[in-house]
Every structure is written in C-alpha cells, then in structure tokens.
Design brief:
The chain has a four-stranded antiparallel sheet. The protein is of the alpha+beta class. It folds into two domains: 24-102 and 119-164; 169-316, 3-layer Sandwich (Rieske Iron-sulfur Protein), CATH 2.102.10. It has seven helices and ten strands. Residues 224-315 form the Rieske domain.
C-alpha cells in the first residue's frame, strides 16, 4: 500500500500461480473409474431423453383438448430436458474430474504467430485430446458420441413426415368462412346483430359453422378463421375503391392472425383505431385497411367482407380474398 506523498508504484510483482491441488481422480484410479461411470450414466440419460422425445412426438400428439395438449407438452418438454441436461451435466462433470486442470500461462505475442508456434499449438490440441482421456476410455467415447449423434433427432423428427404436421400449404389459403355464414361471438357462438355493435366496441368473432367441422380438425379451423370485429364512425373509415362494399355502416372485420408470425392481434386502441400485436408490437390501422403503421409485419391484416342479412345479423359475403397469417413459400403477396 502506497503511503501519502510516496511515488506511485510503477509495476507489481507477479504473484505466480497457486500450487496445483490434485483431485481424487488424479491420484486414485478407482475414483477416476467411478467418475467415468457417472459421466457415462449422464450421457445415457441424454440418450433416453432423446428417444423419449421422439416417442412422445409419435405416440402422444397434442390432440384437440387442453388435457391432451398439456400431457403432450409435458412429455416432449421433459424428454428435451433430459436430453440437454444429460449432455451438459456430463460435459461439466467430465471437465471437472477427468480433464487436465493444470493452470497454464501463455505470454502475449504478436497477433500472427510464427510457424513454429502454430505447430506447437497443434501439438497442444493433441495434448488436450490426450488429457481428456477419450482415447483410452472407449465406453465414455461411445456414450458421448451416441448422445450427441442422437440429440438432433429430438428437433429433426417433429419437422419431417406426419409427426411434424401437414406440409400441404393449400390448407393455409382458405378458411371455413363462406357467403351467408353468421358472425358469432367467441367462445359463446352467439350471432351478432349490427344494431348491437356500438361505435368503439370490439367483438372477438368465430364463424357459426365452426360446430359443423369434425372435432379433430375444429381447433385448426378456428385458428385460421378467428376475426376481430370493430365499429368506427363511418367518417373515420378510409376504404379502397374495391373494398367499399366490404363493411357495413362503419363495421369492419379483420383477421386476428398477425401477418408477421401469426400471433393473435387483439389489443385495440379506440382513440387511434390501432390494433397491436402483443408478441412483437406490430401495429395496424383499422381505419385505413388495417395497414401496418409500426413493427416487423409487412402486410395489412386480411379483411373479411361482411354484410347484414334479412334479420339484421352480420354475415360473411365470402371467405377472405387472400391467405391469412404470415408468409409461406407459395403465397404470392
């Protein structure tokens, strides 16, 4: 410690490295063998987790009910946890018990090393591989390679074949909205009269014919067909010439599926007529064709053409005139 008025220190003595403290595995072959068996068990847990994930994807699909979804998500998530945890814990335990733990100091050199230094670096890498003990521990090497080789299956299998879902993109181009289908409240399914929609009010809407869909496919069809219904003062509404007949007395209906990555767009700000996507803050102007005014979305929300039937209920004129949701490879716009 410098005293008041003394000259500042210009250098410090190198304290050096602390003495190396050998581990049990360094001095006791039995401890080293025990650590090796523990690492093999951890890699085996990873292998079991990967296989379990694939089996869960195949035999326990999400289904259409909350309970089946919870069970499927739990089994898949638990399998992925075991798969990743096993690899990570095995790698950490391996490094702490079997790999070389001697601290080494390498002096700083110019950025471009000499050929001799580079050759020495290769030798160091070879020495490190030897220190890890993988060359003389066949069971450990086999467990590590097997767990690492199998782990990608936990991600790849759900993306291929029927296990990953249907790749028929034609199903994404249409919904079950048809001419004359009533707009009903979600989830009650109560038909909506135009007279019940006041300026500034918002309705979450599903098609009346949703109950006619097979129960196995009902959730998928609902996910594509959900709509947000809003009534504005007609003088605030800006409509393109080809869409002037798509609304009714200031009532407009737009898909709730964000055109960015498909999150539900359901946060409506009455004063600005803005719809906000809670996932990535894409913002759409309901008063101006649901055009994007902020955020990563690149396209307006698709509009559902609506009209009123003889009883005063709001009904669809047709399906959406464009695919709903985010882009896919066969979408033209």
């Amino acid at each position: 410690m410098a005293h008041e008025g003394s000259a500042p220190a210009t250098h410090f003595e190198n304290p050096g490295l602390p003495p190396h403290r050998p581990r049990q595995a360094d001095v006791n072959p039995a401890a080293a063998k025990r650590a090796e068996r523990q690492i093999v068990v951890l890699f085996a847990i990873s292998i079991i987790g990967t296989i379990g994930t694939v089996v869960a994807w195949s035999l326990v699909p999400p289904g259409d009910t909350p309970s089946s979804m919870r069970l499927s998500n739990f089994l898949i998530g638990f399998g992925l946890f075991l798969s990743l945890m096993g690899i990570g814990a095995a790698a950490v335990h391996w490094a702490k018990t079997l790999m070389n733990d001697h601290e080494k100091v390498e002096m700083r050199h110019q950025q471009r090393s000499s050929d001799e230094t580079r050759a020495a670096a290769v030798e160091v890498l070879k020495e490190g591989a030897a220190d890890s003990g993988i060359g003389r521990r066949g069971v450990l090497k086999g467990a590590a390679v097997t767990s690492l080789a199998l782990f990608p299956l936990a991600i790849a299998v759900p993306l291929i074949g029927d296990v990953g879902g249907s790749w028929d993109v034609s199903k994404l181009k249409h919904t079950i909205w048809r001419k004359g289908v009533k707009l009903t409240t979600d989830p009650a399914g109560r038909p909506i009269k135009a007279a019940d929609v006041t300026i500034g009010s918002v309705f979450h809407v599903i098609p009346e014919n949703l109950e006619e869909v097979d129960a196995h496919d009902r959730l998928n069809q609902k996910a594509k067909a959900v709509v947000l219904l809003v009534r504005l003062d007609p003088k605030d509404l800006k409509e393109a010439e080809d869409r002037k007949g798509w609304s009714y007395d200031g009532i407009v209906a737009y898909s709730k599926i964000c055109t960015h990555v498909g999150c539900p767009v359901a946060l409506y700000e009455q004063q600005t007529h803005h719809l906000l996507c809670p996932c990535h803050q894409s913002t759409f102007d309901v008063a101006d064709g649901a055009k994007v005014v902020f955020g990563p979305a690149k396209r307006p929300l698709p509009q559902l053409p609506i009209e009123v039937d003889d009883e005063g209920y709001l009904v669809a004129q047709s399906d959406f005139h464009e695919p709903v949701g985010p882009s896919f490879w066969e979408r033209l716009k």
